[in-house]
Each structure stands twice: as structure tokens, then as C-alpha cells.
Amino acid sequence: MTETPAPVHPPLVPALADRGALAMSEEQLRDWGLRFGRATHAPLLGTVSGELGAGKTTLVQAICTGYGVTEAVTSPTFALAHEYSAPRSPVHHLDLYRLERPDQLEELGWDELLTSRAVVLVEWPERAGDRLTGGHVTLSLQHLPGDPDRRLLYAGWHA
Ligand SMILES: Nc1ncnc2c1ncn2[C@@H]1O[C@H](COP(=O)(O)OP(=O)(O)O)[C@@H](O)[C@H]1O
Ligand SMILES: [Mg+2]
User: Fold this and answer.
1) Per-residue pLDDT tens for 28-70?
2) Which domains, from first to last, does the chain contain?
3) Is the C-beta atom of 50 inside 6 A of ligand 1?
4) Closest approach atom of ligand 1 to CA 24
5) Is the pTM of this model over 0.85?
6) Which residues, other chains included, contact 43 with Cβ-Cβ below 8 Å and sequence gap of 6+?
């Protein structure tokens, strides 16, 4: 059996995530994202999954702020990708909701992104199909039935 190499980062997922799934208010989610961003080092690929309105962009905004992005982070719904600068590395925020086929990722410079020393955060990663390689942090948000103000956050590592 081959051992999975450990990620080259110090711990990326703050202690709060040890419990696996947490119901969080928007303020708590932003605070978690800030701390995650501060603890993050490039290169990092992170996927952010969840339905429309689950809070993916809200979480990405907080991670970017924690990482040191000072520009306003807006949803790349139409452009599919936005790039920001931060002191430690560039940050790429992708929203693949409108991607029609995984091969369109080439136009976005996907392969370069995955091998660059950058932080890459991807909403709707399912759209990338098998272009999405292992070795990334998985963040997932879910609505809570009957509680419109809180979301379940799952954080993990996809080897
Ligand atoms: N606990 C929560 N966490 C994140 N967003 C929340 C929460 N409660 C309410 N919201 C609201 O839900 C919406 C999430 O929008 P957004 O982050 O754009 O979602 P997505 O990118 O997943 O489509 C925002 O309007 C936000 O104010
Ligand atoms: Mg979004």
C-alpha cells in the first residue's frame, strides 16, 4: 500500500473544523473564513460546494480578506474567474456555474492555475469533472431546514 504524501502545508483547517460539520451564522462563517485565510499558504487549491445562496461567495470573500486581499471580492459569475493580489501570492476565485463543458477550462488557464504558486478557490467544482485533481481542501455549505440564518460547514481534505 502506498502512503498518501502529507500536504506540504502547516495545518490549514482551523481547530473549529475538527467537529466536521458546524451550523454557523453568517458572522461565524465570515470569522471562520478569515482565520482560514490567515492560516493559508500558497499553493492551495480549495473547492467550495453548495447550492445557490448557500454562502460560497461569502466564505470566499472572508478567506480572501484573511489572506490579505484588500480589493473588493465580487462573484465571478459572468467572468468565471477573478484574480486578486495579496502580499503572499495571487488569489484566483473561480465560479464554474456557467461552465458548459470541462474542456472550456483551458480558456481560463486552468492547468497553469493548478500548478502556479497561488491560492485558487473554486465555486461549483463539480463542473470541472475530471479536470479537478486531488490534493485540495474541500469546503461545503448546506442550508439548514427551518433555519434561514445558519449554514452547515464541512471542511476536509481530498487526497
Ligand atoms: N449563515 C450564513 N452563512 C452565509 N450566508 C448567509 C448565512 N445566513 C444568511 N446568509 C446569506 O445568504 C447569502 C449567501 O450568498 P452567497 O455567498 O452569494 O452564496 P453562493 O455563492 O453560495 O451562491 C447572502 O445573502 C448571505 O447574507
Ligand atoms: Mg457564489
Assistant:
1) 999 999 999 999 999 999 999 999 999 999 999 999 999 999 9
2) 20-128+143-158 (3.40.50.300)
3) yes
4) 1
5) yes
6) 89, 116, 117, 118, 119, 120
